[in-house]
Specification:
Helix 4 links the parallel strand 12 and strand 13. Helix 3 crosses helix 4 and helix 3 crosses helix 9. The protein has 350 residues and is α/β, with parallel strands linked by helices. It contains eleven helices and 19 strands. It folds into two domains: 171 residues, Medium-chain alcohol dehydrogenases, catalytic domain (Quinone Oxidoreductase, Chain A, domain 1, Alpha-Beta Complex); 141 residues, Rossmann fold (3-Layer(aba) Sandwich).
Length: 350
């Protein structure tokens, strides 16, 4: 079968090659790969920045944003041939740490976790793949191709889950949320905010085109410029920062409302100096009981929350998030971002 492989740490090693067909274990599903979402993590691995192959191998099958259809399922697994599924990305460490032992492997404390398509486990970028039944998630068949949005949706399902848990420390009736960034993560954050009945504003640099259209189609506001200009005199109750841009991160800390929550989902680039009044920011966080936290990855609970969110979403709106579909043989094109991209997807059947 064909698979997308890289040699981690080696720039220019991305290729589509023939690899042996996977052999399912006793408790595994055999899945026909349908589609693979591409994100910044895949591009960074393909450019040699990081990534870890399986033990004893030089190359890694890329891909963690999966979508497939069950070909074979073990009896009693809860799955049958034809089911639409995605695979959970992370696996708990074998020790395990306390968090992993409680099923919270997205919060692993000792970094001995492994991840499909990223760290020590082959990913889902192949014509067929296997998955342990306990780490497969069944999707609403009506989603069809849009199920490839599942993994990024889990990231936001976790973010909102954590926001609501933190808010429960005291009286919490949020009304306004600001999302910075109108990429896939930002737009899905806005979707889940609107599903909660909140007033949502999205801030991005793009002034026209599909991003403003998608935000307004949700019934949300779209802004360019600065956070201060977007929020006005009254800070939002929640800010979800989805760019990783240092200036926006600190502006979010300054502009959040009293008792507010800032969730950082964007991964910042190190090595860039930024002048901020750290004392003033720290003072506001303390005196106003604000919370700043980071969120990444997802556990099984978040996958279930994401299935509910996607099933409730407007299909035509979701379909517009996928701005390019690339045949498997041309996967290198998917690694070159286009200014108009939101979500690029590789068709594993083409």
């Amino acid at each position: 079968m064909r698979a997308i492989t890289v040699e981690p740490g080696q720039k220019g090693s991305l290729r589509v090659e023939d690899v042996p067909d996977p052999v399912p274990g006793r408790d595994d599903l055999l899945v026909q790969g349908l589609a693979l979402g591409i994100c910044g993590t895949d591009r960074e691995i393909a450019s040699g920045e990081y990534g870890w192959p399986p033990e004893g191998h030089d190359r890694l099958i890329l891909g963690h944003e999966s979508l497939g259809r069950v070909v074979q399922a073990p009896a009693g697994s809860g799955f049958t041939e034809g089911d639409l599924v995605v695979g959970v990305v992370r696996r708990p460490d074998p020790v395990p740490c306390g968090a992993c032992a409680q099923g919270e492997f997205d919060m692993c404390r000792n970094n001995r976790y492994v991840e499909r398509g990223i760290k020590q486990l082959d990913g889902f970028g192949s014509e067929r793949w296997t998955i342990e039944a306990g780490y497969a998630v069944k999707l609403d068949p009506a989603l069809e191709y849009l199920g490839v949005l599942m993994e990024p949706t889990t990231v936001l399902a976790k973010a909102w889950d954590q926001i609501e848990r933190i808010g429960a420390r005291a009286w919490f009736e949020p009304r306004r949320v600001l999302v910075t960034g109108a990429g896939p993560i930002g737009l899905l954050a806005a979707l889940l905010g609107r599903q909660r009945g909140l007033e949502v504003a999205v801030l991005d640099r793009v002034t026209e085109g599909i991003k403003p259209e998608l935000v307004r189609a949700l019934g949300a506001e779209y802004h360019t410029g600065t956070i201060a200009e977007a929020v006005g005199d009254t800070g939002p109750d929640i800010i979800i920062e989805a760019t990783g841009a240092g200036r926006l991160v600190f502006d979010a800390m300054e502009k959040i409302a009293s008792g507010g929550i800032v969730c950082l989902t964007g991964v910042s680039t190190s090595g860039r100096d930024l002048r901020v009044d750290a004392g003033a920011i720290s003072r506001e966080i303390v005196l106003e009981n604000n919370v700043i936290f980071g969120s990444v990855n997802a556990n099984l609970r978040h996958y279930q929350l994401a299935t509910v969110a996607l099933a409730a979403a407007d299909r035509s709106w979701l379909s517009r998030l996928i701005t390019r579909r690339i045949p498997l043989a041309d996967v290198a094109e998917a690694m070159e971002p286009d200014p108009d991209d939101i979500k690029v997807v590789v068709d594993l059947t083409a």
